[in-house]
């Protein structure tokens, strides 16, 4: 008969060594023991010891009648059923099943390895009740390594419904030797899949992009000239297709940081967010996942998100574990290879990257001789503008320790957005949901705004286009803005200033605006032209208020410029000057009586106040100020919604760039969050309307009926 120590050692060996061969396990293939009915791996010594202990307990209480064997089996089965859910990893907590549990002083219970990882990353409050802990769990790296938790996250998703083999067995399956060319994607039939679900667009012309213009003033005295007369050009994308089965399909590559700092709750939150992404993709969409730590690897090639593809993708993502350093450059390099080597391409393509740390493999921190960090080394030039394979990268910085400057630079160089995500549960999923709401509603691609001067003497003096590439021709008689991609119902504003000469007549025709773009769904080229923009020229001087739309946009442009100036001052450790720049702009906004009741202006002032508070000192700026400001600058630069960390108090402009599709996807995300997450992380989602109230005397030029050019799109684009 074996001693108790021998029985324990035998049971431990059984648990560690008796495993299924490494393979993808479908739900129906999971051993019955994983759903609480029968042990998949018989551990005779453990069962015998458990039964012996049960008999001893029965004898000690002097049971009146012996319990039947079925009752004992039910008792043992019941002990393996989850009694509680860990609020960090959302997997079950089973007492006496080899899991170390931690009960906090507020009486809430968690897995020990989950909560100790939380504490090691500076979180000292209860994730459930937010109580501040005085007695903290501690776990050394040596102990972690000994128990395997330093490189593996053994937690499963109880709510996900995915039953998987042990991650130790799954890792070799996904990290196979990579080929030199990523050309083994699941193929698509472009002819039959021009829209999600294989839908076809009818002969009727779809809704087109709308152009609306506003002049700074309705009239200029006939004998006067103006050197910088402002014209606002407002673009609004068409509505989303009536049926989601006719939207443009997507090729998406997600690049996920699984370095050691992502261990514990962070990795669990990332997996849950990825589950949301996978489940909201359609069969015509394709997904590929790149994981990176000290190196990077492709979990799987571009795969159609059919029911089987979703299941396989979820299994691959759930196999991820956190260990090693951070190699952002190699992760993006792998993603670029996936995009470059595609044999066929869906109409819409994008890359999403999430990281919680600083690149420790490519960039040198701090740089030598005080030289600036070369963030261009992070992004392969093959996917930037002008390469023929341009793909925007939407970057997400997670937590307080991520490199916000690197993430912002990656997004800015590629024409994507940078979002700042705090450590709160649910934040990653909500941020991903907002981004996916845009990517799954692309209706316009390769849009180019063209401005042509009309009457003689009218010249273009400037174009305020933010992050969008723009230019003025040499003779100053024309200019352009490369707008690129637009989501359904998305709106963009561009300020154009022109020189207006003295005139002899009733009016002066200033400019004509036109937009040429590719319809992402119908795959054809569309040209929309506005009516000529004119200004009245009375003989006498005219007194009129500035257009509210033009004034509001001027303030937004100036505020964006001041945000950049304040951020530059803060980088030089001049926090007093940074705060002063922001305060001056805020006071200028609040002093405008005409904008006192304007919601967007009020929200912009509130945003400036929030930034001002985050640049008061070195600690505040480095903790969250830098990331918050860079995310705001990214949002205003491209007039597109971004996540800003904890923005629950800002109910206006932070969300004013949201489109209806983004709001809808956010509602889906928040409806799926566990109750504890909903209580902790509730932020406003409904964006205020960007449709401004009418001017007292509006001068509005609406677009004429669009017409289609004879050229057509072949269906292949990046």
How would a crystallographer describe the biggest sheet? 7 strands, antiparallel
- The CATH superfamily of the largest domain turns out to be von Willebrand factor, type A domain
Mean pLDDT: 77
What's the number of helices?
17
Instruction: Tell me the distance between the termini.
Output: 69 Å
Radius of gyration: 30 Å
- Molecular shape: globular
Total beta-strand segments: 22
CATH architecture of the largest domain: 3-Layer(aba) Sandwich
β-strand percent reads 15-25%
Total discrete domains = 5
* CATH fold description of the largest domain: Rossmann fold
CATH class of the largest domain: Alpha Beta
Q: Residue ranges: pLDDT <50 for 5 or more in a row?
A: 12-51, 57-83, 140-174, 198-204, 647-653, 675-689, 691-718
Helix and strand composition category: alpha+beta
Helix content: 25-40%
Chain-wise SSE layout:
Elements: H1 4-17, H2 44-61, H3 69-80, E1 84-85, E2 92-93, E3 101-103, E4 109-111, H4 112-120, H5 141-147, H6 167-174, E5 210-215, E6 226-236, E7 250-257, H7 265-279, E8 286-292, E9 296-304, H8 307-318, H9 328-340, E10 348-355, E11 393-398, H10 404-414, E12 418-421, H11 427-439, E13 442-453, E14 459-464, E15 470-472, E16 478-487, E17 491-500, E18 507-519, E19 524-529, E20 533-536, H12 548-571, H13 575-590, H14 599-613, H15 618-638, H16 660-672, H17 675-680, E21 700-702, E22 707-712
Parallel strand pairs: 7-8, 7-10, 10-11, 11-12
Antiparallel strand pairs: 1-2, 3-4, 5-6, 5-21, 6-17, 8-9, 13-16, 13-18, 14-17, 15-16, 18-19, 18-20, 19-22
Helix pairs in contact: 1-2, 7-8, 7-11, 10-15, 11-16, 12-13, 12-14, 12-15, 13-14
């Amino acid at each position: 008969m074996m001693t108790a120590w021998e029985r324990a050692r035998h049971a431990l060996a059984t648990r560690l060594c008796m495993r299924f061969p490494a393979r993808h396990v479908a739900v129906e293939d999971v051993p019955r023991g994983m759903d609480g009915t029968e042990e998949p791996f018989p551990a005779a010594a453990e069962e015998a010891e458990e039964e012996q202990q049960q008999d001893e307990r029965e004898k000690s209480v002097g049971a009146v009648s012996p319990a039947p064997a079925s009752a004992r089996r039910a008792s043992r089965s019941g002990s393996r059923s989850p009694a509680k859910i860990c609020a960090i990893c959302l997997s079950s907590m089973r007492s006496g099943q080899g899991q170390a549990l931690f009960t906090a002083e507020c009486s809430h219970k968690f897995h020990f390895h989950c909560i100790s990882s939380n504490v090691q990353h500076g979180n000292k409050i209860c994730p459930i009740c937010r109580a501040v802990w005085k007695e903290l769990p501690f776990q050394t790296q040596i102990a972690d390594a000994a128990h395997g938790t330093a490189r593996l996250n053994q937690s499963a998703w109880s709510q996900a419904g995915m039953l998987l083999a042990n991650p130790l067995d799954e890792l070799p399956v996904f990290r196979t030797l990579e080929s030199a060319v990523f050309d083994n994607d699941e193929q698509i039939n472009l002819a039959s899949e021009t829209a999600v679900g294989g839908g076809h667009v009818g002969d009727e012309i779809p809704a087109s992009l709308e152009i609306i213009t506003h002049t700074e003033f309705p009239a200029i005295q006939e004998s006067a000239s103006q050197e910088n007369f402002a014209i606002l050009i407002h673009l609004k994308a068409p509505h989303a297709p009536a049926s989601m089965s006719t939207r443009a399909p997507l090729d998406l590559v997600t690049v996920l940081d699984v370095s050691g700092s992502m261990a514990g709750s962070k990795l669990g939150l990332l997996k849950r967010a990825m589950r949301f992404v996978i489940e909201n993709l359609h069969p015509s969409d394709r997904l590929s996942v790149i994981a990176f730590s000290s190196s990077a690897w492709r979990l799987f090639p571009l795969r159609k998100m059919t029911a089987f593809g979703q299941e396989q993708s979820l299994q691959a993502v759930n196999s991820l574990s956190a260990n090693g350093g951070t190699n952002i450059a190699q992760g993006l390099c792998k993603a670029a290879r996936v995009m470059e080597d595609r044999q066929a391409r869906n109409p819409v393509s994008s890359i999403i990257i999430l990281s919680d740390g600083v690149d420790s493999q490519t960039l040198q921190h701090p740089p030598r001789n005080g030289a600036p960090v070369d963030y261009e080394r992070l992004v392969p030039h093959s996917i930037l503008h002008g390469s023929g394979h341009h793909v925007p990268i939407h970057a997400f910085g997670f937590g307080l320790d991520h490199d916000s400057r690197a993430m912002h630079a990656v997004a800015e160089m590629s024409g994507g957005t940078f979002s700042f995500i705090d450590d709160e549960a649910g934040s990653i999923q909500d941020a991903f949901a907002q981004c996916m709401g845009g990517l799954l509603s692309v209706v316009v691609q390769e849009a180019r705004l063209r401005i042509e001067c009309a009457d003689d003497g009218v010249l273009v003096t400037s174009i305020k286009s933010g992050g969008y590439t723009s230019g003025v021709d040499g003779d100053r008689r024309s200019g352009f803005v490369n707008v690129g991609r637009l989501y359904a119902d998305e709106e963009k504003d561009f300020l154009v200033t022109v020189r207006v000469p003295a005139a002899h007549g009733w009016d002066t025709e200033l400019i004509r605006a036109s937009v040429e773009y590719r319809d992402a769904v119908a795959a054809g080229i569309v040209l929309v032209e506005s009516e000529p923009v004119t200004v009245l020229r009375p003989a006498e001087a005219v007194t009129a208020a500035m257009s509210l739309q033009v004034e509001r946009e001027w303030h937004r442009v100036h505020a964006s410029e001041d945000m950049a100036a304040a951020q530059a001052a803060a980088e030089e450790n001049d926090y007093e000057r940074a705060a002063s720049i922001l305060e001056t702009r805020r006071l200028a906004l609040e002093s405008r009586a005409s904008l006192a009741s304007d919601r967007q202006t009020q929200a912009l002032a509130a945003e400036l106040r929030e930034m001002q508070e985050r640049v008061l000192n070195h600690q505040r700026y480095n903790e969250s100020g830098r990331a918050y400001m860079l995310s705001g600058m990214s949002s205003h630069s491209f007039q597109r919604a971004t996540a800003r960390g904890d923005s629950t108090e800002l109910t206006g402009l932070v969300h004013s760039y949201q489109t209806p599709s983004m709001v809808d996807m956010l509602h889906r995300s928040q409806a799926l969050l566990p109750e504890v997450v909903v209580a902790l992380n509730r932020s406003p989602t409904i964006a205020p309307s960007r449709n401004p109230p009418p001017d007292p005397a509006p001068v509005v030029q609406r677009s004429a009926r669009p017409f289609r050019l004879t050229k057509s799109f072949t269906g292949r684009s990046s």
